[in-house]
Amino acid sequence: MSQQDKATISRRGLIAGTGTLLPLALAGCGVLPKPMPPEQLYRLSPKSTFDDDIPAVGWQLGLEPPLAPAGLNSARIAVLRGELTMDYYSGAKWVDTAPSMVYRLLIESFENSGKIVGVGRSGASLRTDFELRTELREFQAEYIDGASNPSVRVRINCKLIKKPQRIILASEAFESLKESPDNRIESIVKTFDLALGSTMKRIVGWTLKSAVGLHSARRPA
User: Fold this and answer.
1) Residue 50 CA: distances (Å) to CA of 45, 47, 55, 120
2) How much is the pTM?
3) Fewer CB in a 10 Å sphere around the end CB: N or C, the chain?
């Protein structure tokens, strides 16, 4: 074997050896990226208990999907750690974007009240007497004044509109602030459920009470 052949074989062996050893070397140094665990999905629940003084009504209500700022129009779980910054929890998401999830739960809450004949999306086949427009202003966990456990703030602005005249009859803001018992994401999600449930309960009661007097006045004697 010539000296040139020996050199060629030596280079090939070196390349082959490098290809085998490089992953082992990287693994030994901890360089190889570790696969990220899948994000855990969380859902919230509709409200199913209400005050006894909510009136039963015979009219139908249409709901518009909530408006929301871009930072909240996401499936990621928002958190405020500073006065002027917004972040999201890693490894956890809602099953839907926050406005879509709140919209579905609010419709289910009206249905669970058992006090209204029909409720559904505005503009669908449902012929509605009133329309409820909502805006999701706050829907985040907050570490207030550097607290170790967050509080969850939910605020929804509502406008009750008479159809078909499209006149605003009443408007109200509903807010709930609940403190999480600890800093675990499961506890924080449960606190979201409590805060949103409290807010939806008051929205259902306010809507039915606000509209019932006017609708009765419209009906012929």
Assistant:
1) 14, 8, 11, 19
2) 0.80
3) C
